[in-house]
């Protein structure tokens, strides 16, 4: 490769700029020159863009050594999938710079939700050589008539930030797009670009599956120094309460902010980020103008402004959520503060990597606990980083909803032959186990609409015309194009000042709970609700001291399995007094109280506490397996106990453990506890516990929306489509009752088992518990461990009592 | 068919059926609300594949109620059909034809947008806003100001009422209900393809929830 014209030209250009290529970049160029596919593993900020992009240029120069500078209108050569719209502009700018310095005539286009129709039209006739696109917009491109000719010159497909996409339905969208492109261009080069995750090899396999090639893995192997510093409260509270300590420690972040050029303060929820913004401003009024807020509900223009200001070093501190997890580097950022648990090692590393971008610089991250027990997580994170234990991102399997959407996408552009498409779809990792039966069901769902009363039916969507499946109705096609995508957010309401001026968006459910005159906080402003009109909440400025901070759903990640294991080890060391970590030593008083009242579990022990309070009889269990596994385990345990006697529970959980609460004593003791935690009949017990239905119902909203069952209306046509509105929960009831084998219903349950309950992890946990000692204690009062669960709870319930009996016990609650 | 529950209002004997209907004994009238017939068909026409058997089942329940109570009148307090005419209306029309001995009265609801001809052909008496008989008046949506200066007791629908029950151990349940207020009753939506609006019962009201095919009195 090094003796090719292209390499020499690129090498000369780099030398002129006094850059030396990294080994991984050269390896990528060589692979692309040979027409290979693969995965580049490199962190942000180390020229990963140039690995694939310069490779594409080298290849082009080699193919056109004499006229590479003058050749114009070469058609689309490189398709660059990027998950974030905000990234596209920066990447495009960097690419254009190289092209112009090389004196070439390539153009770089961007295609995403912000691209104007005029620009789209231009791209249709003259595709740029490089197109930067989101997975959704790529599917929209596949929904255009004549897309194969638009893409006829395509050689290279780059998938940026593949680690972010792989575990999601957007990743499935990418897989399906790769399968289509590989069918159009059997010799296409596909390169994923990914940060380090636990399953890199699998990530490559998933991406390249349709190519039927194993591909190369090219790793940057750049060592980055990292330092974790905990911020300690002056006094360790023995009864930790989530969310309450963090704000109290806000003042302690000021010296850190003071001493850094720019600081990113990561908060786990949008609601808390609003609070932090207010509190920091109150504590340090001189930060005004140098502090900004960045989260998913803030107006996009404002977010872009914040990002630009970060680049130019205008801001001293930005309070942000996972909205800043992705994306380009902000070089001025020197320090990162993580407030509350990051829930996983990979995420923590990624956030830490946000600081100290100069090669060789140490990334410094401060950990600020929101309750004192969280300090144990800091200790666990340090340990995990030392031992290089990083989470995997598991690819999603058999997402029928995404497939249905994809089938409709192809049906509105070129139509499809079912046998050809079936084989093509089965080349993807996601659908490699798709059966012929399921495929037929999918086809019939689209063509005949499943269960129907033949002659009394008007169903129409996809039609079979001369062996080709097509959607012919323009209206249907338009609606489908508007619905392409897999990100389903809650119904959002715009928030505007009554005098004009847009502030951001907020969940409809939150506004619905407010009365006009109530105050709430959004985008760092104190606002009073005046009225709701159509889908807009009109507000005015408020001075009310009692403004409500909205608590947003979503974004609440469970603790990862890796971090859970590390935590158990930390507790073990804490209990035996053998730890030399600052965090564990600081928590001594809390651990002393816990041992006095109950017990500090060792790594091979499961602690169960039974406590009676005026609320009823509590059973607390501490497996440290994350909220989702606990939710499932609570349901299964409740179900298993309820088979012993008629009893009703409600349950609560956090990342450390869960609670069952009943109005009668809970029959769990040494004689039956191992049986109650047995992995036997797990699957059946999951299905029988009422909870899986409730969880599936919640999952169904996303599935029904992606699968095209939720009608979102045409723009500006809200009134006319009112008769087509129904809630996902109602659809779920109807399908479950009248078409229980429907693939989308099955998918909802499967997703619950795989993701919500993390069935594999649940089984692993039960097996671990069987091998460990179960310690049951009967503390006289609440313990430090149970307190955060009791206070910070999300409740579910399960009952084996007859409904009639329950209602007799209940009182009518006069509340919404 | 599950047994109805006995209840009386203004001295009239009523039977509350868990199939979401009220039988008014002395008038031989079955009172139902918010049938939303044709809703599945409306969705399916737009390419949204809701199982049509929901509608068949709703129709079957109406048939079962008629066989059980043998009413001479069915009184619908609005939202009989969900939207514009479609083939599901034809299925109803066939059913109607087989039961032409029963009188059907419809107090129009906001969803009732069929042509007048259709009601005439299918022998359905239509009342624009209100229908009164004996001590009762029937409207689709009851509004508090209707109470002024009248002795009549109202039957209404429209909102698809439900209540949330909660108890010890922070349990909670959402169930459809019959709501009998001081001067008006709100009936549950007959159709299974409808959601619930959670009510806050006033003092002095009676609430009957529908749970597992039974009608249960609260309080």
Mind explaining what this structure looks like?
The complex is a heterodimer of chains A (816) and B (219). Chain A is an alpha/beta fold and 816 residues long. Chain A folds into four domains: 5-219, Rossmann fold; 226-387, P-loop containing nucleotide triphosphate hydrolases (Rossmann fold, 3-Layer(aba) Sandwich), CATH 3.40.50.300; 492-541, no CATH class; 598-816, no CATH class. Chain A has 33 helices and 27 strands. In chain A, strands 3-4-2-5-6-1-7 form a seven-stranded parallel sheet, sandwiched between helices. Chain A has a six-stranded parallel sheet with strand order 8-13-12-9-11-10, sandwiched between helices. Chain A has a six-stranded mixed sheet with strand order 25-21-22-24-23-26. The longest helix of chain A has 17 residues, at 85-101. Chain A is globular, with a radius of gyration of 28 Å. The termini of chain A are far apart. The relative contact order of chain A is 0.08. Residues 810-816 of chain A have low confidence and may be disordered. With 219 residues, chain B is an alpha/beta fold. Chain B has one domain (5-217): Purple Acid Phosphatase, chain A, domain 2 (4-Layer Sandwich), CATH 3.60.21. Chain B is 19% helix and 34% strand. Chain B has helices at residues 39-45, 53-69, 87-98, 116-121, and strands at 5-9, 12-17, 21-24, 29-32, 73-76, 103-107, 124-127, 131-133, 136-138, 153-156, 161-167, 171-180, 184-186, 197-198, 206-211, 214-217. In chain B, the strands form two sheets. In chain B, strands 8, 9, 10, 11, 12, 13, 14, 15 and 16 form a nine-stranded mixed sheet that branches. A seven-stranded mixed sheet of chain B has the order 1-2-3-4-5-6-7. In chain B, β12 and β13 (184-186) form a beta hairpin. The radius of gyration of chain B is 17 Å and the shape is globular. At the A-B interface, β23, α29, α33 and β27 of A face α1, α2, α3, β11 and β12 of B.
């Amino acid at each position: 490769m090094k003796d090719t014209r292209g390499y020499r030209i690129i090498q000369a250009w780099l030398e002129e700029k006094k850059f030396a290529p990294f080994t991984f970049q050269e390896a990528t160029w060589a692979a692309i020159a040979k027409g290979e596919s693969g995965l580049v593993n490199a962190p942000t900020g180390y020229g990963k863009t140039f690995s694939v992009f310069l490779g594409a240029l080298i290849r082009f120069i080699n193919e056109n050594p004499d006229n590479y500078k003058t050749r114009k209108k070469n058609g689309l050569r490189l398709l660059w999938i990027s998950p974030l719209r905000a990234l596209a502009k920066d990447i495009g700018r960097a690419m254009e710079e190289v092209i112009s310095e090389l004196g070439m005539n390539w153009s770089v286009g961007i295609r995403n939700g912000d691209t104007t129709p005029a620009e789209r039209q231009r791209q249709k006739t003259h595709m740029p050589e490089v197109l930067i696109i989101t997975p959704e917009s790529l599917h929209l491109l596949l929904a255009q008539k004549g897309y194969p000719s638009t893409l006829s010159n395509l050689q290279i497909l780059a998938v940026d930030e593949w680690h972010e996409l792989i575990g999601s339905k957007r990743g499935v969208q990418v897989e399906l797009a790769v399968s289509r492109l590989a069918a159009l261009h059997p010799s296409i080069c596909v390169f994923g670009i990914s940060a380090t995750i636990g399953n890199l090899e699998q990530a490559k396999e998933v991406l390249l599956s349709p190519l039927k090639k194993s591909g190369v893995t090219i790793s940057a192997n750049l060592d980055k120094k990292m330092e974790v510093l905990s911020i300690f409260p002056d006094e360790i509270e023995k009864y930790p309460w989530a969310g309450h300590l963090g704000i109290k420690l806000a003042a302690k972040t000021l010296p850190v902010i003071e001493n850094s050029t720019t600081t990113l303060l990561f908060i786990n929820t949008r609601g808390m980020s609003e609070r932090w913004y207010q509190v920091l401003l109150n504590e340090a009024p001189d930060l005004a103008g140098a502090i900004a807020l960045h989260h998913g509900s803030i107006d996009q223009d404002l977010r872009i402004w914040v990002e630009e200001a970060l680049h130019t070093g205008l801001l001293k501190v930005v309070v942000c959520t996972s909205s800043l997890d992705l994306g380009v580097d902000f070089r001025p950022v020197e320090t990162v503060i993580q407030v509350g648990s990051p829930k996983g090692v990979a995420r923590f590393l990624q956030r830490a990597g946000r600081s100290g971008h100069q090669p060789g610089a140490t990334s410094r991250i401060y950990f600020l606990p929101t309750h004192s027990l969280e300090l144990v997580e800091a200790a666990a994170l340090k340990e995990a980083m030392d031992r290089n234990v990083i989470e995997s991102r598991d690819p999603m399997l058999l997402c029928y909803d995404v497939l249905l959407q994809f089938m409709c996408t192809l049906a509105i552009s070129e139509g499809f032959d079912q046998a050809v498409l079936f084989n093509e779809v089965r080349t993807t990792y996601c659908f490699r186990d798709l059966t012929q039966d399921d495929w037929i069901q999918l086809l019939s769902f689209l063509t005949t609409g499943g269960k129907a009363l033949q002659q009394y039916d008007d169903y129409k969507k996809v039609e079979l015309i001369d062996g080709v499946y097509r959607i012919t109705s323009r209206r249907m096609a338009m609606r489908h194009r508007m619905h392409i995508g897999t990100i389903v957010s809650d119904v959002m309401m715009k928030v505007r000042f009554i005098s004009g001026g847009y502030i951001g968006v907020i969940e409809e459910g939150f506004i619905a709970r407010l009365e006009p005159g109530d105050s709430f906080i959004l985008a760092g402003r104190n606002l009073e609700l005046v009225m709701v009109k159509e889908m807009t909440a009109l507000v005015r400025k408020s001075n009310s001291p009692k403004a409500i901070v909205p608590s947003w759903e979503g974004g609440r990640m469970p603790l990862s399995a890796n971090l859970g294991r590390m935590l158990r080890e930390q507790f073990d060391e804490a209990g035996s007094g053998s730890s030399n970590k600052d965090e564990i030593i600081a928590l001594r008083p809390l651990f002393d109280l816990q041992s006095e009242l109950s017990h500090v579990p060792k790594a091979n022990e499961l602690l169960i506490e039974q406590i009676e309070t005026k609320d009823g009889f509590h059973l607390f269990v501490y497996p440290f397996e994350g909220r989702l596994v606990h939710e499932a385990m609570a349901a299964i345990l409740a179900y298993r106990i309820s088979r012993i006697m008629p009893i009703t529970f409600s349950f609560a959980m956090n990342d450390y453990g869960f609670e069952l609460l009943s109005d009668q004593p809970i029959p769990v003791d040494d004689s039956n506890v191992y049986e109650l935690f047995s992995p036997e009949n797990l699957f059946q017990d999951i299905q029988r516990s009422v909870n899986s239905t409730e969880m599936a119902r919640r999952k169904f909203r996303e599935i029904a929306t992606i699968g095209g069952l939720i009608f979102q209306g045409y723009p500006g046509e809200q009134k006319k489509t009112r008769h087509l509105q129904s809630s996902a929960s109602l659809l779920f009831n109807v399908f479950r009752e009248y078409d229980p084998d429907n693939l989308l219903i099955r998918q909802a349950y499967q997703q619950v088992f795989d993701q919500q309950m993390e069935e594999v992890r649940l089984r692993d946990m039960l097996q671990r518990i069987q091998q460990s000692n179960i310690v049951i204690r009967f503390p006289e009062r609440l313990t430090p461990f149970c307190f955060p669960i009791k206070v910070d709870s999300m409740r579910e319930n399960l009952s084996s009592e007859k409904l009639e009996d329950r209602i007799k016990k209940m009182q009518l609650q006069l509340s919404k | 068919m599950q047994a109805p529950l006995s209840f009386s209002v203004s001295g009239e004997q009523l039977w509350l059926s868990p199939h979401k209907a009220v039988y008014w004994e002395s008038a031989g009238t079955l009172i139902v609300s918010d049938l939303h017939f044709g809703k599945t068909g409306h969705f399916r026409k737009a390419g949204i594949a809701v199982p049509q058997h929901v509608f068949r089942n709703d129709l079957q329940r109406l048939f079962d109620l008629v066989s059980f109570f043998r009413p001479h009148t069915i009184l619908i307090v609005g939202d009989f059909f969900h939207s514009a005419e479609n083939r599901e209306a034809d299925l109803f029309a066939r059913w109607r034809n087989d039961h032409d001995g029963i009188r059907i009265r419809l107090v129009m609801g906001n969803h009732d947008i069929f042509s007048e001809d259709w009601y005439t052909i299918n022998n359905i008496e239509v009342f624009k806003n209100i229908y009164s008989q004996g001590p009762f008046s029937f409207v689709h949506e009851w509004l508090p100001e209707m109470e002024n200066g009248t002795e009549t007791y109202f039957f209404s629908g429209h909102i698809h009422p439900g209540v949330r029950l909660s108890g010890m151990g922070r349990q909670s349940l959402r169930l459809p209900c019959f709501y009998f207020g001081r001067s008006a009753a709100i009936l549950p939506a007959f159709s299974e393809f409808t959601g619930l609006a959670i009510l806050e019962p006033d003092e002095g009201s009676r609430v009957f929830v529908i749970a597992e095919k039974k009608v249960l009195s609260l309080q």
